[in-house]
Amino acid sequence: MTPEELARSVARGERRALARAITLVESRRADHGAQGAALLDALARESGGRQAIRIGLSGTPGVGKSTFIESFGLMLTAQGLRVAVLAVDPSSARTGGSILGDKTRMERLSRDPKAFIRPSPSQTHLGGVARRTREAVALCEGAGFDVVLIETVGVGQSETVVAELSDVFLLLLAPAGGDELQGVKRGIMEVADLIVVNKADGDLKPAAQRTRADYAGALRLLRRRPQDPEGFPKAMTVSALEGGGIDTVWSEIGALVAWRRENGHWDRRRADQARHWFLEDVRQGLLAELDAPANRDLLEHMARDVAAGRVAPAAAAQELLTRLERASAPGAELSGAARV
Amino acid sequence: MTPEELARSVARGERRALARAITLVESRRADHGAQGAALLDALARESGGRQAIRIGLSGTPGVGKSTFIESFGLMLTAQGLRVAVLAVDPSSARTGGSILGDKTRMERLSRDPKAFIRPSPSQTHLGGVARRTREAVALCEGAGFDVVLIETVGVGQSETVVAELSDVFLLLLAPAGGDELQGVKRGIMEVADLIVVNKADGDLKPAAQRTRADYAGALRLLRRRPQDPEGFPKAMTVSALEGGGIDTVWSEIGALVAWRRENGHWDRRRADQARHWFLEDVRQGLLAELDAPANRDLLEHMARDVAAGRVAPAAAAQELLTRLERASAPGAELSGAARV
Questions:
Q1: I want to staple A64 with a disulfide (CB 3.0 to 4.6 A). Which of A156, A194, A198, B312 is the partner?
Q2: For the AAA+ ATPase domain, which residue ranges apply (chains A, B) (predicted)?
Q3: Å from B309 to nearest chain A CA?
């Protein structure tokens, strides 16, 4: 099957074609890279203009992320919407298990014909995760999904990556008892549109409501972002287990999306994100010079000297740059002479 | 005067030599760049191992930053400590006035022989500000100052830069009345060690105490960082005008510094920062290729196409990188042939 044929199958919404397409863009083989680019290019022509609502979702293990996604996803498919679930999990190999590797955690959603769940790819550096997730999101959009959920456990910089891929960002929390620390990563407050306190059921309900009030208070202390209508970011409670509040999460997302669309923020965010990823790819391309094994060793060696105070940062950087230039420009002497 | 002679004068603590040295490292002239490097190198030999406590300070206009610095600085000089005040203000040209351009705002401190106040350099891109401020900090340390205060209005990414230059970071706030929004930039919660609510005097005292309590509550919701002892980051009130609480700020900084020194966090942070600036300088050096006018135009042109959706980010990035490679390697054909 050519990339063009695969693109047509994806655009028709064929699940197996989509799975195969994602495997192709996740591959590290050089020939697969070219095929993946051709596939994305063909898909853009086949399904240009199709847009899903991309929802980023972050939450530490134990907050009930899988239960929430299952409950939220089933509510959407019951409304006739098609839902894709992707995961960004740079730590999956390290922690010994992908958050989505076991589809049995979302057993009902994974059997739903209107849902598509894709386990996270194996561990790699975050730059690689970002590119592949972006391409998987584009494939799901091209396949006509109405909602793409992009899940992350929030290790390292991953929620920043997911935020740059999402239209709306949700932070899922568990109720905290009394003075217990929630341990929210600080950077998350930058990107969250909705703070959703889960497990608002049974004994935990009062604690969930208190936690919600705490975060609502904290959010009021932060500066309002231009892309936020009155009242956003918002803190709310849900019970993923019993389904309480799940529909409100969706209606709040709907209100936020409608406002951003009307006020030009939706298109601007998508445009800014495209621009961001372009610049990021260019930067990564230029910085890739440092990834060559010999250069990486040299960099690490010099970084140790700098950290130990044996040489000043600026002087070390200058020396490294000079060495890289010499190593990478075999015609350098020639062109230097030509300039004189 | 040679850079070596200037370094010796700086190391002896001569104020005029220090001012001249900072002017040298702030200069953009190429020959000054080499002299500045020689100066820093010589100073490191003259005064190696001298360490000030570097305190980053951020706060929006109107919170009483100048009054706080004057009051805090005079308390320190009264204890016999030498204090330098530097400013990072990438917006100074835009807003029409440097936060420290007018020394009359800290009239008493600027006349104090134990204090050294340096207005912020004229506007430039943040990367340049970072390097020059780093070098100015190094000069003040080499000149034997006990405390170096690095002030920023927190425009753009400037508090991230200041945090990477500081041992301790203070956020100064004004009391908020009732539901009034403080508008704290979200990223600041990442880096603050002390949140100091100013103007806890007269009518505003109850509001200041309430604001302090609000932030103390918000801080409890965030994850504890490894470099923080029990109880940090901490929220507190001061009256810069009447001097109330200023000594407590200093004793809290002392407790924090002592704990971090004992637990290895002080040295580790300095080492991490040196490493960070080395890597940052290397990256900036590699990315400088994009600053050439022709490349910048091309980048901007392609970024517009990407933002408008006319081309995919990855494809555009690939094309740009290929063009840069061709343009920057006059010996490329030759070396390509040699490799075959």
A1: A198
A2: 51-223
A3: 7
